[in-house]
Write a structure and sequence with these properties.
The complex is a heterodimer of chains A (about 260) and B (about 280).
Chain A lengths: L15 H4 L2 H17 L3 H17 L4 H8 L3 H14 L5 E5 L2 E4 H27 L2 H12 L9 H31 L9 H32 L18 H19 L1
Antiparallel strand pairs in A: 1-2
Chain B lengths: L15 E10 L8 E9 L3 E5 L6 H8 L7 E6 L2 E2 L5 H7 E4 L12 H11 L4 H14 L15 H13 L5 E5 L7 H17 L3 E5 L3 H6 L2 E6 L2 E6 L1 H6 L1 H6 L6 H11 L10 H8 L2
Parallel strand pairs in B: 3-8, 3-9, 6-7, 7-8
Antiparallel strand pairs in B: 1-2, 1-4, 4-5, 9-10
Helix pairs in contact in B: 3-5, 5-6
Chain lengths: ~260, ~280
């Protein structure tokens, strides 16, 4: 199993955030994204950092798990920082190396982008860490329910999401096995030049896609054998219940948004 | 095409719960996978379905609960003739456990996986809670409820698959090579579960298998070959019939092979039904 992959895995600690209604957590996360986009000063960033760390700590999940969630994107963050640094030429020049200059504006925007992205990833990981995929789907289904009037099928969307999340680790494991099988026959992807890597990638994708179709077929058999029929009525074991803490949770994000907009 | 054999109910058995009459199926009419299968399985029987790879075993069981489109012939399950109208009711009567435990795990956790089928039955919360507790305890997986599929062994995954099916309380349970991807220990565990199910007397078991021990434990063997029913025999009759064993690509169980070798050496021993019986024969 892919041990490093933590997408969609909940970490049970029994904290107050774990007990919240999934709809409250999804709405909170959407508000958080808006707040992040609104924050344009160092003071706003500091407020955001204090708020985020406080909420993360209240889940009683060790902070290292949140950092682990951001780790795979560290190079992307570095790339964004460098691009901002080199492309924004506002403010005073902080450093000049020959014809290249780094400006205060570039440094500021680069840092803001990285901080925003970092908090966006670590904080939204809170949603999956404190909510089981089943409850997450129920929450999403609940939020999308009003759109049924416009022909949207929330149950189909959530079923697709849950199956995708369920099979990501399985397909990653399978790709590892295929890569190792190819390496054992002398085609080690890591040691090939870039052009060959591209060609090899095709020979990697074909068996992975074929296997994904096979798995999908088996899964359909398994679902149908358990009586699943699209759009048929179903009961729910875990019911969504909106409580006072859910309202408090949402209010926290609204207050935070107002504070960030004002500073 | 091989000679067609008409399956019969064994003497002294109960009412037929599965009946097939002249069932044929194929994606290409010129190359049918199954041809003119007629058989009947009684309530409470444990039936092994054997045959070489590609002979149509999985196709046959998938036809029973309409996982494949209906071909020619009549299929009757629990008194209901298979049709578009009865698919839902028939699927409630038949539970299926497949070969690869990974590909039949629908939920993200063990609990969600077991609840998937129960929620589809529109059961009340109390009923779902009761069945969840009862079947996970029975299969020894109640401590795994919050686990993800990746955290389970092959044997545990297969137990989850069986619990998911049994919790739906079907009268018929089909195992489609359910033990072929398991290690020896997990395979023995599965055999133990099957024996417990038989002891309860409320399940009819149809098991596709190549495993001699599993065949020996069953009541009856249906052998498929070339898309037709080649034999409908008891396990003992199957293992005494060398031609049929070769046709089905099967080997004798270990005690049988050993007994035969001893007989060839001039030591008289009766062919035993199990390893335990063999030991009792040698050292009474």
């Amino acid at each position: 199993m892919n041990e490093k992959l933590i997408i969609g895995r909940s970490i049970e600690t029994g904290s107050w955030v774990h007990k919240l209604d999934a709809r409250a957590k999804i709405t909170g996360m959407l508000l958080y994204v808006a707040v992040i986009l609104l924050s344009r000063s160092w003071m706003a960033m500091a407020l955001l950092a204090i708020f985020s760390i406080a909420v993360m700590a209240s889940t009683r999940i060790p902070l290292k798990y949140f950092l682990k969630a951001a780790k795979p994107l560290r190079y992307l963050m570095l790339f964004i920082f460098i691009v901002q640094l080199l492309s924004v030429k506002t403010g005073e020049a902080v450093l000049t190396l020959g014809s290249w200059s780094i400006y205060e504006g570039g440094l500021r925007l680069g840092a803001f982008s990285v901080i925003r992205m970092f908090f966006l990833i670590t904080f939204t990981a809170l949603l999956t860490f404190t909510t089981t995929p089943g409850k997450l789907n129920q929450g999403l289904e609940g939020i999308l329910a009003p759109f049924k009037k416009f022909g949207l099928k929330p149950d189909r969307i959530t079923l697709m999401i849950s199956i995708s999340l369920r099979f990501i680790p399985t397909i990653l494991d399978e790709s590892q096995i295929i890569m190792k099988a190819q390496a054992s026959r002398g085609a080690d992807l890591k040691e090939l030049p870039l052009k060959e890597k591209g060609r090899m990638l095709v020979s990697l994708l074909v068996p992975i896609i074929a296997s994904a179709f096979r798995r999908a077929q088996d899964l359909v058999y398994s679902m149908e054998a358990r009586g699943f029929r699209m759009d048929a009525p179903r009961s729910q074991y875990h019911r969504l219940r909106w409580g006072i803490f859910d309202t408090i949770f949402i209010t926290m994000f609204i207050v935070m948004g107002i504070a960030v907009a004002l500073v | 095409m091989n000679e067609s054999y008409e399956g019969q109910e064994l003497e002294g058995e109960g009412q037929a719960i599965i009946s097939l009459d002249g069932v044929s199926f194929g994606y290409d009419p010129e190359h049918p996978i199954l041809q003119n299968i007629t058989l009947s399985i009684s309530q409470g029987q444990w039936v092994s379905l054997v045959g070489p790879n590609g002979c149509g075993k999985s196709t046959l069981v998938k036809l029973l609960n309409a996982l494949l489109p209906k071909g020619a012939g009549e299929i009757v399950v629990s008194g209901m003739q298979l049709s578009e109208e009865t698919i839902g009711s028939i699927r409630q009567c038949i539970g299926m456990v497949f070969q690869n435990p990974d590909n039949q795990f629908i939920g993200a956790t063990v609990e969600e996986d077991i609840l998937f089928g129960l929620e589809g039955l529109c059961l009340s919360y109390a009923e779902m809670a009761e069945r969840l507790h009862s079947y996970t305890t029975r299969l020894g997986i109640n401590h795994l409820l919050s686990k993800h599929p990746g955290e389970l062994s092959g044997g545990q995954k297969q137990r989850v698959a069986i619990a998911s099916i049994l919790a739906m309380e079907p009268g018929i349970v089909i195992f489609d090579e359910a033990s072929s991807m398991l290690d020896e220990g997990s395979r023995n565990e599965l055999l133990g579960i099957l024996q417990d199910m038989r002891a309860e007397g409320k399940y009819t078991i149809l098991m596709i298998t190549h495993d001699a021990d599993e065949i020996l434990a069953s009541d009856r063997v249906l052998a498929l070959h070339g898309g037709g029913l080649a034999a409908d025999v008891t396990p003992a009759e199957l293992f005494r019939n060398e031609e049929l064993l070769q046709k089905c690509h099967l080997c004798e169980p270990y005690p049988w092979r050993l007994a035969r070798e001893l007989q060839n050496q001039g030591i008289h021993v009766d062919v035993p039904a199990s390893e335990k019986e063999f030991i009792d024969t040698l050292w009474p």
